[in-house]
Design brief:
Elements lengths: L13 H15 L7 E8 L2 E8 L3 H8 L17 E4 L4 E5 L9 E5 L11 H13 L2 E7 L11 E6 L12 H7 L14 E5 L8 H18 L14 E6 L3 E7 L3 E2 L2 E2 L2 H4 L2 E4 L2 H10 L1 H8 L4
Parallel strand pairs: 2-13
Antiparallel strand pairs: 1-2, 3-4, 4-5, 5-7, 6-7, 6-9, 8-10, 9-10, 11-12
């Protein structure tokens, strides 16, 4: 389907759209941010930033509100959360219950299952958003990877992720791996693959998308779950994390361990607990043990 002016993002405008929509959505109550505070937790020489939720009451109330069977919040989407058109296949929405400011969703216009492989259209959406602003994009590939909605959506949180640090907690681990191609970090004791990216982000997203897709395929191979062209649905669950500098993919086995739920952000070094009791429980178990158990331990 050819792209129309109503279905594409004007380059250089996403941040403006994002800030404006965030302000308006806060005013009308459509955006219901979840307040948190956070503290570092060191485990095995690795630093994790653990967010402690201050109040989940609003989200809990929304989740308990009766909804039709097979309710899909993206079809139709809430107009007050609409940020911008992105491409002929994707649009951008605000994450209604955001923990991090300006957390956005790249949502397919029509229903596509979250369990399907990523394709070149998804990678075009990634390329457009990462060309517009620096951040961490991610995909929760399946229920066991922490996906909470069945409608296909990628996500992105702009950097800085934490106000007092410019990088992600996982960034030093990836930098220390010093990879020349697809590889792993000895500091991460679970099945994963890391791909350094050497892309010129001033190139068009249309040029960047096939490179991102090829790297995605290579990472699937690296974690033992190669892409299969004869099936639309992925043959397993995984988390994909993407910055302008690298991609990280982790094979998943279950969505949580010992009551600690993990999605892609957990593998960026950012964990979320509901209260101080859960924080103490997490400290006792150890974040690395949690990640090993929701992934596939080496």
């Amino acid at each position: 389907m050819p792209m129309t002016n109503a279905q594409q993002l004007i380059p250089g405008t996403l941040r403006t759209h994002l800030i404006h929509r965030t302000q308006e959505a806060k005013k009308c109550g459509a955006l219901q941010s979840i307040a948190t505070h956070y503290e570092p937790v060191i485990d095995g020489g690795l630093e994790f930033m653990v967010r402690i939720v201050s109040n989940l009451a609003r989200k809990a109330k929304a989740l308990k509100t009766p909804k039709p069977k097979n309710f899909n919040p993206f079809l139709p989407y809430e107009a007050d959360l609409f940020v911008s058109d992105l491409s002929d296949q994707h649009l951008v929405l605000l994450n209604k219950f955001n923990v991090v400011d300006h957390h956005l969703l790249m949502v397919t216009r029509e229903f596509v299952s979250q369990d399907t492989w990523l394709d070149v259209a998804d990678c075009l959406a990634l390329a457009i958003v990462l060309s517009e602003m620096e951040g961490l994009a991610f995909y929760n590939g399946g229920w066991a990877a922490g996906a909470s909605q069945p409608h296909k959506h990628l996500q992105m949180v702009p950097l800085p992720f934490f106000p007092d640090r410019s990088d992600l907690p996982i960034s030093p681990v990836i930098a220390a791996a010093d990879l020349q191609g697809i590889g792993q970090s000895p500091a991460l004791p679970f099945v994963h693959g890391i791909a350094p990216l050497s892309l010129d982000w001033t190139n068009t997203p249309q040029d960047l998308a096939p490179v991102l897709l090829d790297t995605y395929y290579q990472l699937l191979e690296a974690i033992g779950m190669p892409w299969q062209s004869d099936t639309a649905e992925a043959t397993g669950a995984y988390n994909l994390l993407v910055t302008r500098d690298w991609m990280l993919m982790v094979l998943r086995s279950q969505p949580s361990f010992e009551g600690v739920a993990i999605n892609s952000l957990g593998f960026a070094g950012s964990l979320l607990v509901r209260n101080s009791q859960e924080l103490e429980h997490l400290k006792q178990i150890g974040p690395i043990t949690v990640l090993q158990n929701v992934g596939v331990a080496l």
